[in-house]
């Protein structure tokens, strides 16, 4: 009981973190008065202070401002990736699970193939073919996550299809499409929604990882993974330059995981 | 000289958390005792707190539960509040436990022998050799009634039938040579004929070994037939206790009286005389067969349901009765054979034509907890068939609820807010929405408590009398059959072994299997001696 | 039984073939002018047309697509994925060259990760204190939330730059592998621990555990004798995901710690658009994945008697 009471404020905090970061992405100028591009070279590598919360980088740019503005790049890509994965994956999983038979087998064999290539590797290949850019990263991360959505949705659909209330609906004379739309889809979707919340965190990580490896937005554009990569060369002397933006990123991912867990618990209740 | 009973529970009260700093009592001040060689039955419906009481006695309460007061003593040794380590010396050694569901109560990845040996080893007075343990385990399996102990010893749980698994669990409970055995619904997951054998064996053990048994059951029939003393539990309290005769002849508590009245074994005949029976045939199945892979689920089964009557299909698990019901309702297609509804042949229909037939033939599932979409309100549930056929829905939902004795306030509730009995009423209301002529009820009262079961059965016979419905009533419970059915078909291993009017089949069963089934009805003899 | 093995093997073969075909389409068919991918984008305009022509000829880009496909597939079957554009060396030997480093790193990280995951699950199940359980159960979700590049940099900063216990970069001597090992083990341990914590809890509350309590078993005995084995089996089902995490993690880890290995090789191949090498690596990874899953499929029935019964019934 004590634990449940402790967990609720944590959930609240998680939502707060996510809302603030969405605020960063939508209206960065409300959160910082510094420019993410213009720096004061005289003040390069200033340590974190009341003036520069995250310190400054090699060009004297305020790292907090760059993190705030970077939220836009990273979150837009994440959102796009999740929409692609969720939309296509759920549809494919629904078709496979609901139609069954040969269609199901064929779709699942293709899904197997996509699962056999680690998503970071697949995303790297896709980006290398499409060219380096944040949009292409989003596309690549989205495509490489379709398979896992399809698999979860299919499993869920299969378990719902065998529920008595679905058989009952057929027994009452409801048609196949009616059963699918009114019973199967609403009851299958809830666990896929929990996965989508989890995928937000995973996608943020994937987008940032690809950015870190240098496949995303070109400098000087701020992007979370890129910020860490830029600070990395000076990590021995000025550790905050890469660690603080990285910690901000980790906090966001932890928050989304916490929210996803709360979805799953509600679902299983 | 005072002697201490094997188990004495005094004024035990156990709470469960119900939110912040609020507790719901599950057991309120229960006292009981079990003497050597005595079989005490604890009877209660679901939610009565009987399982919590047993867990409390064994020190197996979940960590969230709280003991508010009371004490537990085995042979005068106070064990209240003992930790797991100390309780481990009592469990197995002094008190053996037989769980409810044999299918989940054995470790699926270990051989039976290994699991029995563990029970022997934990409770051996002094360390022995592997051969000693093995011999003791085999002995225990034999005592539990497994003749082929050597073979079972080598097998995994999934290779055994439910009855054999329950015997293996009895062997585990006996392996530590306990003085008392606590059995929590030991037969409710088993077929009636198997239930009879297991209960016979437990009773025999009590006489042979002189142990005490605390038998927890929801079935008053079982308790009346087997126990020396009975405790009736309701809402966490013992509402009545006494010797069997006394409970049967002079029940003092109202709830006990209601339980006795609801028990199918206490009735002589149909709940209400059938006034709607006609000579016409509502549904006729001829030579239906169905195989799954290599299993013949159904072998050339025939069935004739007269219009306005109830035809019961009775059998144990694997008898093929649910397969038959599924084919009648059009959920499953038969490999061969025909089904006629009125003049229409069901088996020849395509999907669209089948849908039209649905208006006349509806289905009610066993489990009201899974047959209602949890996201639909009662109104939407009941209106669903009407919408599917484009029938006017104005006011129908309230009307239908009224027919199953629920008022309009239920219309906007979700299934999660209803009790099991209320859910089954909603399921029946939904099945009646299109004014069908035939209802196929697949174990429709099996998941419900006896008192609720009695209400639903009454509702069904009343509906039949009002609108001349025909029922196909699938059940494993012969006791229920005579309350509701006009005709009965007995099935075994996918085949029909006997069919005929209920009175005939019950009084002069032609087939040996039917006789065995009738013999196995708990509490059957008690009524006749009354 | 034989049918089961044949079915699973066939599936594995299909996955590998499809991965080959997928990369062929992605790398050789989709790009409008695949020859361009073979040159550094900044130098593309300075390349004389006849050189391009010759290169295209060398790589068979002038032939019809289907012929190219058949040709490459035929060679791939013998392990020949062509030569790396950058180094000119055969793709297979370029991969085999760095394989031991990655194998050592990922095998070590996997062992570490499994130990950590089992440890977390054991503590979470066996503790009676709710707060200990909550803290321990929060660890896996933290492990999967922290980006590998961040944990790598943090570990580097603390143990190498601040404390000076381990060398920061390079791959000489056993001391240099300690930090990369830990870095890689964290994201790999996360999902395994999440699964184990859940399945330990499920098994610990199952019916046969109640039977064991009633037999007179102790808490520790129950966890060791009943729960550990039955709850660990499901971890095999995410072997494929674990493998993917190891590959993805080693790409980043090897970059952060400047180590030789498949991960660095992959990154270089992508950066330089070394198409034959990229294809070779993807197919190699798919083969490994398929083999691991095949191994799990074949070994699972041996570990779980229920599965054995299912498999034997499929005759």
From TrEMBL, chain A:
Q: Which PROSITE patterns match?
A: ABC_TM1
Compartments annotated for it: namely:
Cell membrane
- What's its membrane topology? Multi-pass membrane protein
Superkingdom in the source lineage: Bacteria
One Pfam family linked to the record: BPD_transp_1
The record ties this protein, via Gene3D superfamilies, to: MetI-like
The protein's matches in InterPro entries, at most eight in alphabetical order, are given as: BP-dependent_transpt_permease, MetI-like, MetI-like_sf
Record keywords, A-Z: Cell membrane, Membrane, Transmembrane, Transmembrane helix, Transport
Q: Output the SUPFAM superfamilies linked to this UniProt entry.
A: MetI-like (SSF161098)
Q: Which residues form the signal peptide?
A: none
Q: Where is the ABC transmembrane type-1 domain?
A: 71-260
Q: Which CDD domains match?
A: TM_PBP2 (cd06261)
Membrane spanning residue stretches: 12-31, 75-98, 110-131, 192-217, 237-259
What family does this chain come from, according to its entry? Belongs to the binding-protein-dependent transport system permease family.
Full protein name:
Peptide ABC transporter permease
From TrEMBL, chain B:
Q: Which GO terms describe its molecular function?
A: ATP binding
Q: Which residues form the ABC transporter domain?
A: 7-260, 283-518
What are the record keywords, sorted?
ATP-binding, Nucleotide-binding, Transport
Q: Which domain of life is it from?
A: Bacteria
Q: Which SMART domains match?
A: AAA
Which family does the record claim for this protein?
Belongs to the ABC transporter superfamily.
Q: What is this protein called?
A: ABC transporter ATP-binding protein
The protein's organism comes out as Winogradskya humida
Q: Lineage from the top down?
A: Bacteria, Bacillati, Actinomycetota, Actinomycetes, Micromonosporales
UniProtKB/TrEMBL annotation, chain C:
* Keyword entries, A-Z: Cell membrane, Membrane, Transmembrane, Transmembrane helix, Transport
Question: Membrane topology type, per the record?
Answer: Multi-pass membrane protein
One Pfam annotation, family name?
A: BPD_transp_1
Q: Does the keyword Transport apply?
A: yes
- Matching InterPro entries: MetI-like, MetI-like_sf
Q: Which residues form the signal peptide?
A: none
Q: What is its main location?
A: membrane
**Chain ranges of the ABC transmembrane type-1 domain:** 99-300
Q: Which residues cross the membrane?
A: 12-32, 103-124, 144-165, 177-197, 233-257, 277-300
- Localization in the cell: Cell membrane
Q: What is this protein called?
A: ABC transporter permease
Q: Which organism is it from?
A: Winogradskya humida
